[in-house]
Design a protein that fits this description.
439 residues, mainly alpha, elongated
């Protein structure tokens, strides 16, 4: 039977009946063909950027594959693993992370069994492990994510040793994820090592591309690797090479954005925002402001059609206020900080998870007002910032201690400026208690 990519209403009755009564090889081959068609329908929907439509046919493909695997795992479990992996991808894209994680775990387990019987599945196992590591990281299970991603790298190194041309891209992708996992766990030296290896592999891919389109795609991958490498180097305190990597990444994305209008603008904005941080770290405030201004303009344009970009815009505006102030552009710094507060407040009203961003933006606005000798106007913003950061620190002390300490110090300074030393001392004492708790 032929299945087409249309809104899925479930298995046709004849297929359902045969699935329930299947007992012969002919039944199984028929059902395997149906499952293959269902998987292709799901993939077609996903390629058309409609993952919600891909869910139904892919779930039914999984159901059929489970039945086939129960009857003859040696013939059909590979198909089940692939269907499970695909369904995990679609659900993850739609934000259904918990089920996606479970399905990806099951896909990995199936691929392990199949790969022991058929070496052709080692590549699929490596891909599933890579996905599984990403899912675990999103779930906050960082140690497990690192272990799984390291296994994916090991497998892809083995494949790369057999066929370097074919598997260089896959190895680079796994190494990039491993660098990110290491950075998340504070293993910055390892993150830099894997980040450099990733960038080196990507450069080879760029230099050996056979046509311009392929070269451009590889350039984009190189830029992404350089972005991550810049962050890893920065975390290690190697600010000059971090700036060099981020500068190259921004340059690549700028060229791609010019060559492909309508594409790469978001990547360029992110790269410029990162470059601004790297410029700031080497005490080049004017250059940091310039890069952040360009990023803000891009984010503002993108936000007209993609509201999901507003968080990035808010963060970049907040940083821009800091950079402009350090560059001696006080009035423009105030404008950026006020815009950051307004936007982050809007985001926090619809999603409480943005309260941390709002608190940091308020704290920076209070600083800008104090610099303008307006301490009375600064004080309420500083107090509000402390309130938000206290809430977050109570839930996540390690993550939010630095931000809360910054806000408490700012509030104490504002009170001191207004001659309210006794009140200021309360916040100084609170800061001392937090620091002692971290020792």
């Amino acid at each position: 039977m032929e299945l087409t990519a249309m809104p899925w209403t479930g298995l046709p009755d004849p297929v359902r009946r045969r699935l329930e009564t299947a007992g012969s090889p002919a039944d199984f081959e028929y059902l395997a063909d149906v499952a293959s068609q269902l998987s292709e329908v799901g993939q077609q929907w996903y390629r058309d950027r409609q993952p919600e439509e891909a869910i139904g046919p892919t779930r039914d493909a999984v159901e059929i594959r489970r039945r086939l695997t129960a009857a003859d795992a040696s013939h059909y479990e590979g198909g089940l693993a692939t269907a499970l992996s695909n369904l995990g991808v679609y659900l993850f894209v739609l934000g259904q992370h918990e089920e996606a994680l479970e399905l990806t775990q099951e896909a990995v387990d199936s691929y392990r069994r199949v790969a022991q019987r058929d070496s052709r599945y080692w590549e699929s196992l490596a891909a599933a492990l890579n996905n599984f590591g990403n899912r675990l990281a999103v779930a906050g299970r960082l140690d497990e994510a690192l272990t799984v991603t390291d296994e994916a790298v090991t497998l892809r190194r083995e494949l790369f040793s057999v066929d370097p041309v074919r598997y260089a891209g896959e190895l680079a992708a796994a190494l990039n994820n491993l660098a990110v996992r290491c950075k998340e766990l504070g293993r910055h030296e390892d993150a830099v090592e894997y980040g450099r290896e990733t960038a080196a592999l990507r450069r080879v891919r760029v230099n050996t591309a056979h046509d311009q389109h392929t070269r451009d795609a590889e350039e984009a991958e190189l830029a992404a690797a350089l972005n991550n490498l810049g962050e890893a180097l920065s975390a290690l305190g190697q600010h000059a090479p971090a700036r060099e990597a981020s500068t190259e990444a921004a340059g690549i994305y700028r060229a791609l954005a010019q060559a492909y209008p309508g594409h790469y603008a978001a990547d360029l904005a992110t790269a410029l925002s990162n470059l601004a941080k790297r410029e700031w770290e080497v005490q080049r405030a004017p250059e940091a402001a310039s890069a952040a201004e360009e990023a803000v303009a891009l984010y503002q344009a993108l936000s007209q059609t993609n509201p999901g970009i507003l968080k990035d815009l808010s963060t970049c505006l907040n940083n821009l206020g800091v950079y402009r102030a350090a560059a001696g552009r006080a009035s423009e710094a105030m404008q950026a900080s006020q815009a950051a507060v307004a936007l982050s407040r809007h985001l926090a009203e619809t999603n409480p998870s943005f309260r941390g961003d709002l608190g940091i933006a308020l704290n920076n606005l209070a600083t800008r007002l104090a610099e303008a000798r307006r301490p009375r106007e600064a004080l309420p913003h500083a107090k509000e910032a402390v309130g938000y950061l206290r809430e977050l620190h109570a839930a996540f002390p390690e993550r939010y201690s630095p931000d809360l300490l910054d806000c408490l110090g700012n509030l104490a300074n504002r009170l001191t400026e207004l001659g309210r030393e006794a009140e200021a001392e309360q916040y100084v004492a609170e800061s001392t208690r937090i620091r002692r708790g971290r020792m």
